[in-house]
Design brief:
Blueprint (H helix, E strand, L loop, with lengths): L1 H10 L3 E3 L5 E2 L5 E2 L1 E3 L8 H18 L5 E5 L2 H13 L3 E4 L12 E2 L7 E9 L3 H12 L3 E10 L3 H10 L3 E6 H11 L6 H10 L2
Parallel strand pairs: 5-6, 5-8, 8-9, 9-10
Antiparallel strand pairs: 1-4, 2-3, 6-7
Helix pairs in contact: 1-2, 1-6, 2-3, 6-7
Length: 202
């Protein structure tokens, strides 16, 4: 599934490679790869492949899960689709509390002690999804862990999750995407060393 999901992201152009003309992330980091998993939602076939993969991942890694919570905004749709197919309650966590109404950060009902899995589309440093998980724990949920579509596999994200005492599982990742891109001729195999050097530097 790891390879199949990587091929799916490449086919839908959700993953872009530009080794010689790097993208600039919001953090200012110059990256030879950019991932926009929102594009998966626009392709019914790709969407089905990804959602089936996420559901299988949740059932395998978190068999005791009782509810799914997406991260705003990109994780919301994937959490909703997976929760619907699994017959689970669903909600989502905002990046910050609303400045109106009840000032909620969590949308949807959190039942104290409920075993939940957080659904994210992409993990780079892991900061936003770890913050979402902490918000759910503070609201009384038992967060079993996180699932995501794609992970950059950065050392800083692994360290952040370890420090938070939280685990995550990705459907596919940087390494699988690089390999799939080389196999299809999207990039030259000689580019992989450059791509890995970038990933290992963060």
């Amino acid at each position: 599934m790891r390879k199949k999901a990587a091929e799916c992201l490449l086919k839908t152009e959700a993953v872009f490679f530009r080794p010689d003309d790097p993208f600039t992330w919001a953090s200012g980091i110059k990256s030879p790869i950019y991932c926009d998993n929102r594009l998966v939602l626009s392709d019914p076939q790709a969407r089905q492949t990804i959602e089936e993969g996420l559901i299988e991942l949740i059932r395998t890694e978190y068999p005791d899960a009782e509810a799914l919570f997406g991260t705003a905004t990109a994780g919301i749709a994937h959490a909703a689709i997976a929760a619907h197919e699994m017959g689970f309650p669903m909600g989502y966590v905002r990046s910050s509390a609303k400045d109106h109404g009840r000032g909620s950060r969590i949308e949807g009902r959190v039942v104290p002690g409920q075993k939940v899995v957080v659904v994210e589309d992409l993990i780079s440093t892991g900061g936003s999804v770890i913050s979402a998980a902490k918000a759910l724990e503070e609201a009384g949920a038992e967060v079993l862990g996180v699932v995501c579509i794609f992970s950059y596999n950065l050392s800083r994200s692994r360290e952040a999750f370890a420090e938070a005492g939280l685990e995550y599982h990705s459907l596919t990742d940087f390494d699988a995407a690089c390999e799939a891109a080389a196999e299809t001729g999207y990039i030259d195999r000689s580019d992989i060393d450059q791509l890995m050097a970038f990933r290992n530097s963060l």
